[in-house]
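ok new one. same drill as before - structure tokens go in, u give me an amino acid for every spot. 152 of them this time. try not to just spam alanines like last time pls lmao
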């Protein structure tokens, strides 16, 4: 008969061994969530770019919505980065985990720039929107350059 002191150890080992599939599934889910967030940001950016290029008439309400979409996705991004969640299905560079503080600072900077875009939209100020879009483009580009693998 097993002693009472041995049972917690056996239980802990069983949980840790049995948890590996769940950890892998959770990482895959977080990768899928961050990819969906970035795809959503890409769509919002396309909408904003159409206003910058003059392909669509400026619409402050749409600008505000797209700006807040990007900002909110970037704020949530920090929760979607489990250690080592890289691989063939993600363009995340290992530098994210080697410099998580720098990565989070870059994400916060881009989020603040997206909020400035949204604020320009709320104010229905096209000139301020174009300036804010330049700042957002710079912030996103800097982060992508350092922390994202380029497309093949």
């Amino acid at each position: 008969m097993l002693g009472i002191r041995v049972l917690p150890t056996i239980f802990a080992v069983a949980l840790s061994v049995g948890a590996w599939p769940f950890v892998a599934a959770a990482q895959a889910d977080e990768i899928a969530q961050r990819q969906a967030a970035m795809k959503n940001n890409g769509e919002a950016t396309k909408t904003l770019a159409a206003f910058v290029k003059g392909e669509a008439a400026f619409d402050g309400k749409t600008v505000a919505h797209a700006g807040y979409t990007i900002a909110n996705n970037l704020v949530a991004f920090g929760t979607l980065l489990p250690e080592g969640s890289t691989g063939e299905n993600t363009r995340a560079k290992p530098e994210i985990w080697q410099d998580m503080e720098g990565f989070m600072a870059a994400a916060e900077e881009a989020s603040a720039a997206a909020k400035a875009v949204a604020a320009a939209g709320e104010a229905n100020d096209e000139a301020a929107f174009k300036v804010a879009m330049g700042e957002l483009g710079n912030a996103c580009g800097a982060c992508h350059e350092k922390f994202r693998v380029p497309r093949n």
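Residues 6-147 form a domain with the Four Helix Bundle (Hemerythrin (Met), subunit A) fold (CATH 1.20.120.10). and btw The radius of gyration is 21 Å.
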